[in-house]
């Protein structure tokens, strides 16, 4: 089982959900007393939230990049940024390390393709809904995104930051979120992306009669698929990271950044092919990545 690095704390409510899902997923797959091998770096969300509000994304990128480096130094084989909004600075974080960073937008697009959905409604923080970084990532995979009107965006932002991030799950707010989702379906969305990791604390996928894409769950499922490539009986545990030169070689073998318009679905997801190859290269394996595709551009 590979060691998973998690950058969390934004908020800790959703990070706790990541840890629960990762550990329950390992137990389901391996049984008994098995649990996930994790290195978790949590940040103080209050300064990060101020940086978001002030538009200081470069400052936030420096914080998360340092956390990613610490996870790599601690032996993590790949990294999850446990928040949709902070994928705005994904490129800066990914550039700070030589191990893969599994992009939340890519795994969400894979799930949409597997469900036959090409137009989604997005519920998320105002940053994720109003700025283009997340919608553009989905568009790279052929997924069109609809967002709520301004009043509804303000409502979703308030529910996320004033309630869910501090552990309040209000039934009235759940109903409001569902009404906003239904308005997006009326506008032509074929499914709903819960594009904030806290939203799964309020809305279950069964709450709507269309495909719902819970991004926290999808991210964890993709991470487990990658981490459990090796049998738990494999004696190679990777307690320490391989030499930096080997990791750099692995990243180079993952190939240059390029949009991937074709996703094969959840059974053989394109998003993991080159991550596996990168990990195998670092471990002296024989897999060779397609030089034109990578999971984590």
Automatic annotation (TrEMBL):
Keyword Transmembrane: no
Keywords: Isomerase
InterPro entries (UniProt xref): Asp/Glu/hydantoin_racemase, Asp/Glu_race, Asp_race
Keyword Isomerase among UniProt keywords: yes
Chain spans, region Disordered: 250-269
Annotated family: Belongs to the aspartate/glutamate racemases family.
Cited PANTHER family: ASPARTATE-GLUTAMATE RACEMASE FAMILY, GLUTAMATE RACEMASE
Official protein name in the record: Aspartate/glutamate racemase
Species the sequence originates in: Kibdelosporangium aridum
Lineage, broadest ranks: Bacteria, Bacillati, Actinomycetota, Actinomycetes, Pseudonocardiales
């Amino acid at each position: 089982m590979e060691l998973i690095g998690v950058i969390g704390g934004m908020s800790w409510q959703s990070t706790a959900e990541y840890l629960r899902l990762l550990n329950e997923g390992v137990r389901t797959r391996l049984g008994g007393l098995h649990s996930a091998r994790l290195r978790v770096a949590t940040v103080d969300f209050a300064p990060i939230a101020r940086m978001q509000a002030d538009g200081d994304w470069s400052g936030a990128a420096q914080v998360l990049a340092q956390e990613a480096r610490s996870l790599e130094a601690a032996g993590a084989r790949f990294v999850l940024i446990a928040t949709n909004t902070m994928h705005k600075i994904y490129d800066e974080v990914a550039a700070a390390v030589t191990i893969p960073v599994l992009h939340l937008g890519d795994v969400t697009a894979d799930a949409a393709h597997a469900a036959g959905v090409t137009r989604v409604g997005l519920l998320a923080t105002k940053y994720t809904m109003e700025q283009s970084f997340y919608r553009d990532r989905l568009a790279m995979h052929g997924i069109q995104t609809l967002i709520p009107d301004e009043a509804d965006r303000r409502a979703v932002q308030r529910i996320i930051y004033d309630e869910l991030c501090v552990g309040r799950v209000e039934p009235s707010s759940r109903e409001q979120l569902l009404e906003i989702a239904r308005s997006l379906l009326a506008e032509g969305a074929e499914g709903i992306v819960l594009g904030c990791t806290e939203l799964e604390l309020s809305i279950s996928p069964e709450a709507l009669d269309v495909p719902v894409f819970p991004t926290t769950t999808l991210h964890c499922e993709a991470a487990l698929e990658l981490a459990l490539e090796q049998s738990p009986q494999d004696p190679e545990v990777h307690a320490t990271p391989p030499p930096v030169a080997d990791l750099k070689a692995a990243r180079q073998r993952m190939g240059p950044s390029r949009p991937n318009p074709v996703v094969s679905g959840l059974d053989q997801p394109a998003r993991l092919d080159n991550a596996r190859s990168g990990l195998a290269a670092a471990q002296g394996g024989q897999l060779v990545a397609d030089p034109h595709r990578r999971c984590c551009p």
